[in-house]
Structure formats: structure tokens, C-alpha cells
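call fold(seq) -> C-alpha cells
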Amino acid sequence: MEIEFKFCIPPERLAAVQAATRRGTHAQIRMEARYFDTPDAALSSRGIAFRLRREGNQWVQTVKALGDGPLDREEHNVDRGQAHATGPAPEPQPELHAGTVAGTRLLHALQAATGPLTETYGTEMDRVTRDIAFKGGVVELALDTGRVIAHRGKPQQKEARICELELELKAGPLAGLAALATRWATRHGLFLSTVSKAERGERLLAPQWARPATKAPPMKAGGPPKHFLNGHALQRAAVAHCLQQILGNASEIVEGGGDEEHVHQLRIGIRRLRTALSELAPLAPGAFNPTWEPPLAEVFRRLGLLRDQGQALQAIVADLHDAGAPALEVRAAAKEAPGPSAAAAATVRTPAFQSALIALMAFTAQGHDASPATGEEALDAKHTRRLLRKRLRSLHTKVRQGAQGFAALPVEKQHRLRKRLKRLRYLTEFVEPALDAEGHAFLASLQPALAAMGRLGDERVARTLYGQVATTDPKAWFGVGWLAARQALTVAACQEALGHIADMPRLHKTAQR
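ret:
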């Protein structure tokens, strides 16, 4: 298993990165690769990449698959012999990877495929490598520049740029890798991306590529109660789970392909992560670094302004149209340059946010480190379960209390209750596999209240935006009045939905083992 960070390099920073990579002892090699898949995409659909790559005068066959965390990659390489200038490439032999984690996934995927392996796309690139020693370890830098090519030699040939820097831990503690990655990212304006060369090739093959926004998947059934063995394990599992959503959407945004839904899902991922950092901190005091929170909060806030001008208005503008509102493009009137895509990308690329992500990714991989960083002793399974049960009950009680008089609460306290309800939802999701049979039903009972309170928040945001536009366009007053008239109905819907939240389920007994 390899542990690495992969960064994209802004074009204007490439020359400086090239000079820094070539400083001292380094090596350069030409690489040309052929990637393979089946007609039904049996490999790419499962996150598997299978290739033959010519590395100088040597052929190497490689299979890569997703690991358990944001820094982990399962990889297996096989030497396929010497490459000759005029000789053909060897035929791919998947069976050479049998007995490895990545190879087992490859062979299982091929067994389920409906057709043979065929070449799909290729890469041509130059790689410069350099080893950097730090106290107790070594990191390999690999600078890749070149192109991905699909439909090679055909009229519809397409290509995409490769310009990446990878930092892979060869020996030593993760802290050294994280420190080096942070230094290079900050110095050269690099930004993390989970888009692989294989995925760049898949994008070229698709007629119209659009990576959907990454939503939070359910916690794995193999997570808790397994992760209740100690507080550190549950903390790492929850943070890794949040980063999966954050990195998927952030990568799409910084590479220029994100839309308003990517921004929305990125904010959800950040909110979930902040909940984990707050609610799970007592499980292993001192394990979470307090410097992670400020950049997360700042990016969440800045993206929120973009979300308010985008997704928050979608349904409301449609409802206003149905109510007979005069034609008005309130979103265009309210926006300021730069546009949402550029502003979101600039926000995600900020050095403080990138540094926080690097540190959080390293934290999730501490289980692979021979000497992980620790604070005080982590709680054992029994005390972990007791603390979580206490926190879940406390949040549930406060939500129930706030629900009883919701309509009479000031706007600030209504908003605070919504945030508390979200924390209850996310904390419940983190431990759902360790809940009794009512866990799924309990989460479902939260959804109507969350939806109703989300609608109330969107209407209030829209009312403010329409009020701003009305100072220059009188047609916006229709929206201001319509939204004001709706508020009492929407508040009543919130109170009714809050009243249907189910009783808090229990953590089942296997969590004690």
C-alpha cells in the first residue's frame, strides 16, 4: 500500500516547481502508458486502473485500486521485461497480480465483465523524481508533465494536460510527509486533487463528462462497532468519511468543473467534519489539532455566500414564477464578480484550507504509522459508548425542547436549533452501524424537520436578496412581499415536522466488545 499526496500545479507556478524538483540529485525518465478496460467499464466503474507502462527501456504492468482512506492506494506492479524501440508492447496479463489486494479486485471485476480487455486511452509524460530526506524518513517527489490521449491516431483524438506533483512516503513517520507536503503546497500554490490520470482518460472518452457532486455515503458496516475498540479509531474513521465527500467536491471545483451542487455538497462535508471534530474530540483528548477549525470555518462561510446566491434560490424562484411574479433574474442582479465557479475555486485553493486538508488526511492514516501522534489516552470501547450515548441524548433532548416553542423563538435561536439538529443527524450517522434496528428509522424521522428548516432558511436568504435588488428594480418587491407572507406558514411547517422526531435509538451491545 502506498501513502501519498497528489497536487495539481497552476500553470504559472510550473517553472518554479520544475526548478525546485531538479535541485540536487534527481532522475528523469520518459513514460508512455496504455490503459485497459472492458466495454462495460468493469474496471473504471469500480475505481480500478489497469495499465502497461513503458518506463525508459522497461515495461511495467500495474493495477491500482482505492484504499481505505484518502491517503491510501492499493497498488501492485509486475516487471514485464525490456522494451525495444521497434518491438510491440506485451499483452496485458491480469493474472500476474493474483494474490494481492488490488489484483484480487481486478480479477473479480473481470469475472463480472461482459467483454474482453481493450485499450481505452494512453499517457505520454516526462517524470522527474527526487528523494528528500527528513529526520527519520524519506519522501519521493515525482513531477509528471505531459498529456492523456484518447482515440489515439483517429479523427476524434482528444487530449488533456498532465501537470502533477506527487509526494510519496518511502520510509519514516507520516508527520514528515505531511510537513513536507504542506511546505511545498504553501510555497508553490499547489492544490490537492483526487482526479487521477486514469480518470482524466475516462473524461476524454465520455461525450459530455460531468462528475456528479460527491454526497456523503453511509458509514461502512465494517466501521463501528469495529471502530469502538478505542476513541482514536472512531475519530479516524469519521474524519476519513468526511474527507471522502470534501475531497471529491473540492477537486472538481479547483479543476474548473464544479457547479452549485458541488459547492453545496462541499459545505455539507465541511459541516460534517466540523461536527466530528467537536463531538468526537473527548474520545481521545488532544488528538484533534485546534488549528484545523479556523480555515474550515472560513471556507464554509465564504462558500455559503455563493450558495445563498445559487442553490438557495432555485426552488424559490420557481415558486415565485408559479405565483405570478414578474420576470426578474434576481441571481444575476445579486451576483458580483468574479463568478461563482472562479470564486469557489479561489476559496478552496487558499493555503490555509489546503494545509488543513493535508493535516487531516495525514491524521486519518495514523493507523499505518508505527508511532502515531497521540494526546492523552483514548477511551476504550466501554467509555466510548457511554460518552457517545450521553452526547446523543443531550442533543436529542435539546432539539425536543426547542421544538416545543419553535414558532416563538427569535430567528437566531431558530437557526441555532437547526444547527443542533444537523449535529444530531451527523453524529448519529457516524455511529449508525452501532445503533439498534431503529437507527435507520430515527435518521429518517429527522429528514422532514431538516427539510422544513432548510426551506425556512432559504426563504429568509431569498427575502434579503430580493430586498437588495428591490432598491434598483421595483419588480423585486413582489418577491419581498410574497416571502414575508409565507414566513408564518413555513415556521408552522417546521414546528410540525420537529414534533415527529422519533425517540433516540440505543447503541447495541456489540459496541461494548
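Strands lie at 2-8, 27-37, 49-55, 58-66, 72-82, 118-134, 137-150, 158-171, 191-192.
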